[in-house]
Amino acid sequence: MSGFELAGRISATEVTVNSLHPATYMPTKIVLADVGSSIDTLQTGVAATYRLVSDPGLDGVTGQFFNKTHTARAHRQAYDRNARAELWNRSLQLTGEPDVATEPGRPG
């Protein structure tokens, strides 16, 4: 939700903001300790992350959610503008930071 909100507040010519679920249950210490096994490899997660930051085909793409290397739908609440704005405002209140992203409008 924060990523979608930020993407809507900052021009894609300035910076792009996307969200990524790089892989499922990669073999990290936490996953192996809690789950006991992995589904995806670390290489899957690294490849998805690297693609998002380096693929020229994604230049200017902002406000998207990716599952590994594919555009996907996030949880439905992430598309609720009111919920995103509320999260944004509460985050500013909790951190005491000023709202520096002031270009509202682009949909997530």
Could you give a quick summary of the protein structure above?
The protein has 108 residues and is mainly alpha-helical.
Let me know the average pLDDT.
92
Strand order of the largest sheet: 1-2-3
Q: What percent of the residues sit in helical stretches (DSSP H or I)? A: 25-40%
Number of helices: 4
Query: How many whole angstroms does the radius of gyration measure?
Result: 16 Å
The major β-sheet equals: 3 strands, mixed
| Overall geometry | globular
N-to-C order of helices and strands: HEHHEEH
Distance N to C terminus: 9 Å
- What fraction strand? 5-15%
What low-confidence regions span 5 or more consecutive residues with pLDDT below 50? none
Structural class: mainly alpha
Total beta strand runs = 3
Which properties best describe this structure?
108 residues; mainly alpha; 3-stranded mixed sheet; 4 helices
Structural features, described:
By secondary structure, the protein is mainly alpha-helical. It has a domain of 66 residues. Helix content is 39%, strand content 8%. It is built from 4 helices and 3 strands. Strand 2 and strand 3 form a beta hairpin. The longest helix has 15 residues. It is globular. 13% of the residues are buried.
